[in-house]
Input
Amino acid sequence: MNHSHPSYYLVIGLGKSGLSMANFLHSQGMDVVATDIDPSKKEAADRLSHLGVETQIGFHDQNTFDRAACLVPSPGIPLTLPYIRDAVEKGVPVKSELDIFYQHNRLPVIAITGTNGKTTTTSLMGEMLKGCGYHPFVCGNIGTPLVELFMTTTPFDIVVAEVSSFQIDISNRFRPDVGVLLNISEDHLDRYIDYSAYEDAKWRLFQYQTDTDTAVINFDMENSIHRSSQLAATVMAFTSGSADSPKIHARIRPDEIELTTRAGLTRIDTRPLTALPGRHNRENIAAALLAGLAVNADLNGLQTGLKRFRPLSHRIERVTEINGISFFNDSKGTNADAVNRALQSFNDPVILILGGRGKGTDFSALKEEVVSGVKAVIAIGETKRQIIDTFDSICPVKPADTMKQAVQTAFDSADTGDVVLLSPACSSFDMYDNYICRGEDFTRLVLEMKKV
Output
């Protein structure tokens, strides 16, 4: 380092978010240094170097952290990283991606979080707003970094952002006009001290809102009514259960959503929405409808966008049918609650492909759904032994060493009318680079089997 005084922003991590952040800060005239301990990020570093951004790839230098004016960690970088922790102890401040975005943003923001369903709901929200004539910038964990908004010439008029607990964790000022909390269940317990800490991180989405903002909240979550009473924002709640509160504006029934608007009660028939099956998707729809109403979007326009929405890949995605056996790819189901929601979407017997790299997953949370609807479990990945120990007393469990073996074993275990479901309740990193690669491999193997 040749910086004589701490004047640079240190961007930590050069994935999509970090690369965009380094680009943006440089475009604002900031002195930027970018670092990533992964040597494979050399190509991204070369792109930054051509702009005049200094990079350190394949290693971290504590001196670089200590002398920064500000640390900007990418969402996947924990604050417990020793280099960050030591620099913070020496007084170096940390700025989050959300706070930097908020500092420069001038558009209304709908921010969506939750353990499950946030990508689907964010994408759905964007499509519903388009149905009303808006031009939404759909961003965040869905794939487009937030600061890309400031590097485009496209005239957007509203932001819809998927935000994670990791992003919210280090935010000190981010304030969405509409914050949406879909659900909370056990996840990322490899990152948080306990479930309570993870739960608190999700609720921090609302901490800087005022009485001019709106919080859309699932009132079926534990303590949600009590927690929401402590918020400054106006609360618009939804429920699939028996929760009772004047703040409830959407009640989810098996075939419809009862929506309370300024014009009165509106019933939205969800039976034609076959692309969004299951109660969990009705909850996603209800949340998006309430968020749309919170920004004064037209209800008819929201429904127009809802009807033309097509679900995202790797989320209870139908692959094909072979000999009357249906195959579904739910590779994005990376925690127990997501798997339970997927299983609840089917009335037919399920052969469940389960496993991968654990994240503190409690597989016993699946027992009730497995007993009621699963014909056999195919166990894969690093958690194979844990899955066998959890389920072998309640249903057949068959181990598989590869996805190819898992698909064949599932097919051999199924009868006409059954469902083969890949919904792993785990991350993919023991066998694949990400959940997309896992889902694509499953799909390829199923389609190859169909040819045979």
Q: What stands out?
A: The chain has a mean pLDDT of 94.
